[in-house]
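Sample pair:
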Amino acid sequence: MSALNDTPVDTLSFEAARDELVKVVSELEQGSPTLEQSLALWERGEALAARCEEWLLGAKRRLEAARAAASDNSDEAES
């Protein structure tokens, strides 16, 4: 059984990418039957990890923007 999925990584939600990454790591830890399969899993895992990081950085930027907006609003209310 292979954890490889045909879904393009750039279309995955954070949760879907994270869940698939967990499966890929588990399969790599168990050892794949061939070097080619191991390389394919590794490459998919790298892409999934990058996708998760992309989602997390986006969430961080949104939180920072929301905090900045809230701070601006409270500064205006105090004036």
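The chain has one domain: 10-78.
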